[in-house]
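Just scan my protein:

. . .
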Amino acid sequence: MTRDEEFIPSVAVARFSGDLHGMPAEEANALLTKLLADISVDCGAEGGIIGHNKANFRCGDDLLSISCTTDDGKVRSKSLFVAPVGEFTGVMDVIVYELDYSVIRGIVEECAKALPGVEVSVLENQLRCSDPNCKDPNCTNPEHMK
């Protein structure tokens, strides 16, 4: 890369859903934190520079909000689950420089396999919303796409 080339990251958005069947909050926090850590470490091992990997998982009114900005897998938490975790949903943004989207997608899908009963759908955040009234910078609503 030369000095005048743009340094633009690849971005993948992953949507998660699953059921941890009443897993204690501490175990669920550790399991999902490890998922984000593993993804960050694997992206770094593939030569990527971590921009900001962030995940929010919700179970009822309970929220686990975590992020990682380094390839050593050190995850910080903003909030943790406090009650046992059953059915949950989650969204993860994986923003990595110097790594193609296809590699990021493969890493996320492979790491998610370690979570039995959890489904993941990885979207390429390259779609551009064409609705001038939409305020979502990561809009994936198909009705907003031209």
The radius of gyration is 16 Å. The mean pLDDT is 89. Strands lie at 10-23, 49-59, 62-68, 76-79, 85-97, 119-124. The chain has one domain: 10-125.
